[in-house]
Amino acid sequence: MIVVLVEVSPAGEAVETSREAITFARDLAAAGGGIPIDVVVVGEPDDALVKVLASYGVRRIHALTGPAFEAFSGAAWATGVEHVRASAGAVVVMASGTPRGNEVLAHLGARAGVPMAANVVSFGGLSPFTVTRQVVGGSALEEMQLSQRPALFTVAGHAVEARPADVSGTGELVVEMPDVPAADLVARVVSTEEPEPDLSGTLKSAKVVVGAGRGAGSAGGFDDLLELVDLLDASLGVSRVVTSLGWRPHHEQVGQTGSRISPDLYIPCGISGAIQHWAGCSTAKAILAINTDPDAPMVTKATHAVIGDLHEVVPAINAEIRRRRG
Amino acid sequence: MTVNPLVCVKRVVDSSSEVVLTEDGQGVDGRFAGFTTSAHEECAVELAVRVAADQGGGATVVTLGDADAVEQLRSALAVGCTAATHVLADAQSFGPADVARELAAVVRDHEAAGTPHELVLLGNDAADSGDHQVGIRLAHELGWPVVNGVSTVSVSGGEVTASGAGPDGHETYRVPLPAVVTILEGGVEPRYPTVPGRMKAKKAPIEERRPAADPVGPSRVRLVLPPPSPSSVEVLGEGAAAAPAVVDLFERLGVLAR
Predict the structure, then answer these.
(1) Best CA proximity match to A281, nearest among A293, A298, A294
(2) What angle do CA B71, B90, A277 make, to 5 degrees?
(3) Residues A7, A253, B77, CA angle at the centre, nearest 5°?
(4) How far is CA B140 from CA A84, A102, B146, B223, in A?
(5) What is the pTM of this model?
(6) Pairing of strands A92-96, A2-5
(7) Which pLDDT value is given to residue B257?
(8) Minimum Cα–Cα distance from A201: chain B residue
(9) DSSP 8-state symbol, A85
(10) Which of A:161-180 have CB within 8 Å of B?
């Protein structure tokens, strides 16, 4: 059996990367001859979430409840997931390759003394069980054997597209209240401040992102870019050099050590496209690169490009949008 | 109470333009790209130095790597670490569990020698292997609590306060020492080394040690490069004259609210 840790948004919905992980699990289950899939959620899901999870082919939904799960603790979540895994006799435990997912599965790996593969994009043979995962920010891949049980891995964001199953699962809800040792609760969140509206949470979920790199020229070189952000109801994302120079705050950074984005359209302006930046934007559906260098990696990897200085091109785009809007 | 943080760094290939693999497919070839310290770990070093200064202790930097990894140790010494430990080993042969076990051995041996590390800082994940688990495995080895993926750290009254971005907002943890904390870039600006700092780092003694145990290994079959996708970029034009074609594209993609 396969167990998947599903993360739930504050609105009570299964986050997209978790739905992707269930989709990945279904492909794996099918290759294994129809292994059942159970999921673990923290907190009691509402009817709508139960229906969505069932539509993804899930057999049982194990809801971890009780005081131990009221504030996040990676160790406590791991205890809850392990409780479900052990009682169901699951041989595979998965999560999405989010900070939470990687953290919880790392705890499980440490406790069981087995490997954990982070950010898997595909699986190969089942015996021995082989997975391929992203390394060097996705610029290289590692084939890795997970020969010990349980096999633990997280699924890289957008490795697969989230899609409901052809045949719904039973989606039986099982409320769990596992014993959580006090030691698991030593490192837990004691306070959470609401994110500001334009923090990276918005950036990560934005449909359009306008990117800015060294080509912006200075901290004062963002006015036209911010107007484009406003005109497209977009978010601003920046390269690491921009934050290193102190031009913009870190939470706007896109890349291997910043946010990983997957918008419908990414518009990198004056960004050459170092692989660390590409790691954060490669899953954008369309990329319009604006750059003076036609051979810049960001231009050659883009779907569309304008060759020119962003300080000439972006104001012209803004003016054209305003003109068409009358 | 005095706090002497231990901060763990890794020598990684500085692969900003192209990744080249070694002939045996077991690692990334850095002969032409050069080497660096992961961005998260640069921030971990900065935080370790700040905590040590604040708490009247000294920060020790540790790495597991070949002889050349001494460069990363000296970089950390140049920005304020006061001691360095080098576990001489081929890092490619060590999986995350192996590295965690070696780091735990360093913590225990230093404590036995009279320098306890009440706080161990690591990067959340290395820029090359991206395993996301060494800190957590280290905490399990030591039986300590672990806070993962935060950007700021401060110590007061035998407790570490750490905070960073979570899925629902800015999260704060308060954990009694000893503890392990893994760091994400973004909370602090790593300082640049001063000239005196560099000179001092060049001469600083470095504790060298051999691995405490043979590594199990990273479960790696091999590394491969993803197939290059042929460039199919559509150039919409040059300079400001391209603006109408760009806005046409916005309309086609449905991203321009009318």
Answers:
(1) A298
(2) 65
(3) 105
(4) 21, 16, 9, 28
(5) 0.92
(6) parallel
(7) 64
(8) B167
(9) H
(10) none
Token pair listed for A107: 């705890």
Cα-based distances in Å from B169 to A27, B165, B186: 33, 6, 15
Convert the pLDDT of each residue in B4-21 to its tens digit.
999 999 999 987 767 889
Cβ neighbours for A326, distance < 8 A, ≥ 6 positions apart: none
DSSP strand pairing (A265-269 vs A304-307):
unpaired
Collapsed DSSP state (helix, strand, coil) of residue B225: coil
Q: Which pLDDT belongs to residue A245?
A: 87
Contacts of A11 (CB under 8 A, 6+ apart): none
Query: Which residues of chain A from 251 to 310 reach within 8 Å of chain B, CB to CB?
Result: 251, 253, 256-258, 264-265, 274-276, 286, 288-289, 294, 297, 299-309
**Two tokens, residue B209:** 């040690």
**For the segment A31-56, what is each residue's pLDDT rounded down to a tens digit?**
999 999 999 999 999 999 999 999 99
Interface of A with B in 198-227 (CB under 8 A): 199-201, 207-208
Q: Nearest CA of chain A to the CA of B205: how many Å?
A: 31
Q: For A117, name the nearest residue in chain B, comparing CA atoms only.
A: B131
Tokens of A176: 């769990």
Please list, residue by residue across B197-225, b when 16 or more beta carbons sit within 10 angstroms of its beta carbon and e when fewer do.
beeebeeeeebebebeeebeebbbbebee
- DSSP-derived secondary structure letter, B177: S
Nearest CA in chain A to B129: A135
Residue B220 forms beta bridges with which residues? Answer: A144
Query: 């599965």: which residue's tokens?
Result: A105
For the record, the structure tokens of A149 come out as 């049980």
